[in-house]
Design a protein that fits this description.
Shape: elongated
Radius of gyration: 25 Å
Strand content: 15-25%
Helix content: 25-40%
Largest sheet: 6 strands, antiparallel
Order of helices and strands: EHHEHEHHEHEEEEEEHHEHEEEEE
Number of helices: 9
Distance between the termini: 18 Å
Structural class: alpha/beta
Length: 441
C-alpha cells in the first residue's frame, strides 16, 4: 500500500564501519524520519541469531541494496561473492534496485556491477572530494531520487489494484500526504513524520464525499500488556490476530454525511463537519445498509479487531502517538491526565473531524471526540475470540455492543486504544458515534 517504507539493505566491509556510519546515521536519517525507508545492516542481527540466515532473509526482501564499495569490499569474499552477486541478480530480475556507492579509489570498474549507475556523480570516490560532507550529500540526493521513483511506482500499482477491486477508474483514487507525531512520556512531541495513504472517495451527492483509507493487511497483538496503566482484565488474554486488507473511514461519520444518507440529524452538538452522535448501534447499522444500497458496495461497522488494528497502525503504546495523550492531539477530558501528560482546557463537546493529527495509517480522531460502535457482541474477555480479524457476534451478551476510542467526555485512561467500552445497542448519547469500513470481495 502507499505509504509503506522501502527496505534498504546495507552491504559493506567491517573495515569501512566509519564511512558506513556516516552515511546511515546522518545522510539517510531524514529519509527514515519521513517514513520512506527502513535500513538494515548486519549490526542489527540480534544475539543468538544465525547470522548467515538473517543476512540472506533481509537481502531477499530488500527493495534497495546499497553496495558500499572500497578495496576492502572488493577483497571480501562474503561481500563480493555472496551479497553483491545475489543483489545484482535481483537487480536484473527487476525485484530490487542496486546502487553502488564508491567510497574510495579502487578497481570497481572491473566488478560485476560496473554497468550499474553509481554514486557519487561521475563515480568520483567520496574520499576524493574536497568536502566529504558534500560528497555524501550527493549520494543522499541520488538515493532520494531512487526512493521517490520506487514509491511513486508502488503507488501507481497500488492505485491500479485498488481501482480494479473497486471497479472504478483510477482517477477515483488519490494519494494524500499527512503528518503523524510521536510523544515521549512527558507528552512532548519527539518526532513528526510525513506519511502518505491512498483513499477512495465515495460520492454522496451534492459535492459531499466519504473518504475511505486503504488499510494494509497485517498481523498484530491485540489487547494490552499486564503492566499498562489503567488496564482492565477484559483487555486480555492477548493474542495475535491476522487482519486482511480493508478500507476504513478516514474520519468519524459526520452530521452532513449522516443526513445525506439517512435524511435526519439526531446530534446534540450541531455542526455539519462534526461527528454525528446520539446514534444507537441499530441506527449506525441502518446507515451502513442505506449507504450500501446507495453505492453498490457493502459497508458495515468495523469489527473490534479491525478497529484496534487500524488504531494501532503498527504501534504498541497505549495511544497511537505514544505512551500518553495531550490536549493538542485529541478531544477528551483533559482535566485528568495519563502518566506524564499535562492538563488542559476541556472542549465540553465534539470538535470537527480531522482537527487533530492522524495516525500513521492516515485515520483521524481514533482517540476521543466520540465513541465508535463496533459490530461485536460484548464478551468479558478475549478467551475464544476469533483471530482472523472478523467480528465476534456469537454468544456473549447480545444486548450489548462494543464501543472503542473514548470521547470528549472521558478521562484519558478510557481513550486508550486497548480500552473496551460497551453499551446497550439501543442507547443514544451525545458522546457516541461511529465510522464505517468496506472489505473488497
Amino acid at each position: 500500500m502507499a505509504g509503506e517504507a522501502l527496505d534498504v539493505f546495507i552491504s559493506y566491509s567491517r573495515r569501512d564501519e566509519g564511512l558506513k556510519d556516516e552515511l546511515v546515521n546522518y545522510h539517510l536519517k531524514l529519509l527514515q524520519r519521513e517514513g520512506k525507508i527502513n535500513t538494515w545492516q548486519d549490526r542489527d542481527i540480534e544475539a543468538g541469531a544465525e547470522w548467515a540466515a538473517e543476512i540472506k532473509a533481509n537481502l531477499e526482501k530488500a527493495d534497495i541494496v546499497l553496495l558500499l564499495v572500497t578495496r576492502h569490499f572488493l577483497a571480501s569474499d562474503y561481500c563480493y561473492e555472496t551479497e553483491m552477486q545475489q543483489a545484482v541478480k535481483r537487480h536484473y530480475d527487476g525485484t530490487a534496485r542496486v546502487i553502488p556507492i564508491i567510497l574510495e579509489t579502487c578497481g570497481w570498474k572491473y566488478g560485476a556491477f560496473s554497468q550499474l549507475q553509481v554514486l557519487p556523480k561521475d563515480g568520483k570516490p567520496v574520499t576524493r572530494w574536497d568536502d566529504k560532507a558534500e560528497a555524501f550529500f550527493d549520494v543522499e540526493e541520488g538515493i532520494r531520487r531512487v526512493v521517490d521513483a520506487l514509491i511513486a511506482e508502488r503507488q501507481r500499482q497500488a492505485q491500479e489494484w485498488l481501482a480494479a477491486s473497486l471497479r472504478v477508474s483510477p482517477n477515483a483514487l488519490s494519494v494524500f500526504e499527512f503528518k503523524c507525531v510521536n510523544l515521549n512520556k512527558a507528552g512532548i512531541i519527539i518526532e513528526c513524520q510525513q506519511r502518505q495513504a491512498t483513499i477512495f472517495r465515495e460520492d454522496l451527492g451534492n459535492g459531499l464525499g466519504l473518504d475511505m483509507v486503504a488499510i494494509p493487511a497485517g498481523k498484530f497483538v491485540m489487547g494490552s500488556p499486564p503492566e499498562e496503566v489503567g488496564r482492565d482484565d477484559d483487555e486480555g488474554p492477548r493474542r495475535t490476530v491476522t487482519v486482511p486488507s480493508f478500507f476504513m473511514g478516514r474520519f468519524q461519520i459526520t452530521q452532513a454525511q449522516y443526513e445525506a444518507v439517512v435524511g435526519e440529524n439526531p446530534s446534540q452538538f450541531q455542526g455539519a463537519n462534526c461527528p454525528v452522535e446520539r446514534v444507537t448501534w441499530d441506527a449506525a447499522v441502518m446507515f451502513c445498509e442505506k449507504l450500501s444500497a446507495l453505492t453498490g458496495r457493502t459497508y458495515r461497522l468495523p469489527s473490534e479487531a479491525q478497529w484496534e488494528y487500524a488504531c494501532r497502525a503498527g504501534t504498541t503504546t497505549p495511544f497511537h502517538f505514544g505512551p500518553t495523550i495531550t490536549r493538542d492531539l485529541a478531544n477528551y477530558n483533559c482535566s485528568s491526565t495519563y502518566e506524564g501528560g499535562s492538563k488542559g482546557i476541556d472542549m465540553w463537546g465534539t470538535t470537527t473531524v480531522g482537527r487533530f493529527p492522524a495516525n500513521s495509517f492516515g485515520l483521524c480522531d481514533m482517540h476521543g471526540n466520540v465513541w465508535e460502535w463496533c459490530q461485536d457482541v460484548w464478551h468479558e474477555s478475549y478467551e475464544g475470540a476469533p483471530t482472523d480479524g472478523s467480528a465476534w457476534i456469537e454468544e456473549g451478551d447480545q444486548a450489548l455492543r462494543l464501543l472503542r476510542g473514548g470521547s470528549w467526555l472521558d478521562d484519558p485512561v478510557l481513550c486508550r486504544l486497548a480500552y473496551r467500552g460497551r453499551n446497550s445497542r439501543d442507547i443514544s448519547k451525545g458522546d457516541v458515534g461511529f465510522r464505517v469500513v468496506w472489505v473488497p470481495a
